[in-house]
Amino acid sequence: PEPDPQTGAAVKAADRAHVFHSWSAQDLIDPLAVAGAQGSYFWDYEGNRFLDFSSGLVFTNIGYQHPKVVAAIQEQAGKLATFAPAFAVEARSEAARLIAERTPGDLDKIFFTNGGAEAVENAVRMARVHTGRTKVLSAYRSYHGSTAAAINLTGDPRRWASDNGSAGVVRFWAPFLYRTPFYAENEAQECERALAHLESTIAYEGPQAVAAIILETIPGTAGIMTPPPGYLQGVREICDRYGIVFILDEVMAGFGRAGTWFAADLYDVVPDLMTFAKGVNSGYVPLGGVAISGKIAETFAKRPYPGGLTYSGHPLACAAAVATLRVMEEEGVVENAARLGAEVVEPELRRLAERHPSVGEVRGVGMFWALDLVKDRETHEPLVPYNATGEVNAPMAAFGAAAKKRGLWPFINMNRTHVVPPCTVTEEELKEGFAALDEALTVADEHTV
Ligand code: PLP
């Protein structure tokens, strides 16, 4: 498309005058005015094009503007643009059926929400009503959303300002060998100690008071820490022993991101409740939900579920999900994420790690990878301190600016850059992205010891 700086300037001016942005000091941001997007790329009004290694906020698993999904939304809008949640509606029924067919075990009933945080709120409510208990255990190094319960369950600094309503929330440490909270020397030790820590946390909280344990199957924003073998099964056993509901949050890890339909498939574990959003329809229309096991569905078979949303299972969102899931099946999107993740992303990232002293650790699976950037490879000291802002964060800001200058849009959180392109990404696009990343990492290298 032709550059159109004048329109870009008007879009930006109206944004600056009237749009109040998430998580931001409003006067200190400079949002890029986006003119359009296609596949793995988006572009501005000045004629700059970016390869999106962040998939928006890790949600465009099938890339931007997939023609079949766009057409399905248009068709649904013409047929039945909206309808109240108490009715049986074709798009909603079909979306629920297709999701339930893919979720593990007996997670066969779907409660629809508008996004991930509402999914977490409702999963927690279901667990509390089901067990008659109140406490919920969640991990440090996690993100579960920014509504009341979801933000209190979140284990990152974004929670601090909302830390006044955490009734019943108890946090624990999940395994992460590279920055081990357990002084472990290997994965087996980390796993064993993390499980012992969880179990003693439960003992001291009172097992009869614990309604649920919630974990991201693979923590996403907190750093893509794939759990050690046996950990999630261990948590499953602990939950079974004490009658605690096991909630897996697959809002980011689900729908192809991990190279499987759900990350839980990788670890052969079935939770009692599973939250999803993002990739379910690539974010074309807001949608999330909770997949519910038979046991918990039974609780609400004869007794009303005390929760609901005006737009639960919105027809446009559900039609987008149906089309997205069909596209993923037809085009082998999950297989593409698994294959290119193993054959291209992992070896390329390990090559970058060899060349760049700022890369402390490479970790991930499928199309879900993180580079942990460090000042010092020996001590693992992060390139910038935890929760750094302003001048202290300058090394990460310089790295990000260098990537963007080379046409790569990175996903950056604290001292990490994540490699999370659409699951439809091609090998050529990946190589283009790694060439840009290679150059940008030289900027990070300047800040190593
Ligand atoms: N849970 C996880 C694991 C997430 O990554 C996110 C968002 O990034 C959420 C929940 C919250 O989802 P939403 O922003 O759609 O409310």
TrEMBL record:
Domain of life of the organism encoding this protein: Bacteria
A Pfam family the protein falls into: Aminotran_3
PROSITE patterns for this protein: AA_TRANSFER_CLASS_3
InterPro entries given in the database record: Aminotrans_3 (IPR005814), Aminotrans_3_PPA_site (IPR049704), PyrdxlP-dep_Trfase (IPR015424), PyrdxlP-dep_Trfase_major (IPR015421), PyrdxlP-dep_Trfase_small (IPR015422)
SUPFAM superfamilies: PLP-dependent transferases
UniProt keyword Zinc present: no
Entry keyword set: Pyridoxal phosphate
Keyword Transcription regulation set for record: no
Family matches, as NCBIfam families: PRK06062.1
Family membership noted in the UniProt record: Belongs to the class-III pyridoxal-phosphate-dependent aminotransferase family.
Name this protein carries in UniProt: Aspartate aminotransferase family protein
Organism encoding this protein: Streptomyces wadayamensis
Lineage: Bacteria, Bacillati, Actinomycetota, Actinomycetes, Kitasatosporales
